Amino acid sequence: MGDENDIEVLKMMEASLKELREKEGELEDLEALNQSLIVRERKSNDELQEARKELINGLKEISSHAQIGVKRMGELDPKPFLEAMKRRYNEELAEKRASEVCSLWEEYLKDPDWHPFKCTKLEGKEEYEEVINDEDEKLRDLKNEMGNEVYKVVTLAIMEINEYNPSGRYITSELWNYGEGRKATLKEGVKLLLKLWDTSGE
Fold first, then answer.
1. 52: closest CA among 171, 179, 167, 173?
2. Distance between CA atoms of 186 and 55, rounded to whole angstroms?
3. Contact indicator for 118, 130 with CB cutoff of 8 Å
4. Which of 18, 28, 106, 131 is the most buried (most CB within 10 A)?
5. Element at 69 (helix H, strand E)
6. Distances from the Cα of 34 to the Cαs of 28, 121, 127, 194, in angstroms?
7. pLDDT band, very low/low/confident/very high, at 202 (cuts 50, 70, 90)
8. What is the distance between the alpha carbons of residues 192 and 146, in angstroms, rounded to a whole number?
9. Could you give the angle at which helices 79-86 and 148-164 cross, rounded to 10 degrees?
């Protein structure tokens, strides 16, 4: 009777081991499938990024006042600098001074040691975001000396650089939806390209 119980237990163990081996095989197959899908996703993502890059490069060459276009992220708009200088100097001197001050701020924007941000906790969340530090000495002096409009273009430029190229601290080009003030989708860029292609054939 004891032998029969032992045989029964051995059969159950063998069945369990067989099932375990089958499950291990299934798991290995799933892991291989998962790796294959990850590789495909990376390849597709690389192709999409390359297509986006080519679209941006192609649209740079086309001067279009369309809703979708290429925006240079982190580029300073010189107009507010000129307007601020016109309040102090005659037209000729204002242009010269505005160009000098704008160039100086372009250099400040490239400086990786200058980080005029602070982290604030998002309300009701455990996440933090970087925002402009109003106590930054350079920015505070800029606002006092040049006014709010110049301050706005400089802080917009540094925010764009921080978002789109924080490690390089230089201007990058981005496919942009000017109508909605946001990064354009690849689909929107392709639609524009097709529209431009249709109108050039007419």
1. 173
2. 8
3. yes
4. 106
5. strand 68-73
6. 10, 36, 30, 36
7. low
8. 38
9. 160
Q: Which residue has the tokens 């002096």?
A: 141
Task: Check: CB of residue 139 under 8 Å from CB of residue 48.
Answer: no
Angle between helices 2-60 and 186-200 (to 10 degrees): 40
* Distance of alpha carbon 30 from alpha carbon 36, whole angstroms: 10
Residue 1 has pLDDT above 60, yes or no: no
Cα(34)–Cα(116) distance, integer angstroms = 42
- Among all chains, which residue has been given the structure tokens 């050039």? 200
Higher pLDDT, residue 63 or 67? 67
Question: To which residue do tokens 């604030």 refer?
Answer: 120
CA distances in angstroms from 75 to 157, 171, 177, 191, listed in the order given: 6, 6, 17, 26
Which residues, including other chains, have CB under 8 Å from residue 202's CB and lie 6 or more apart?
A: none
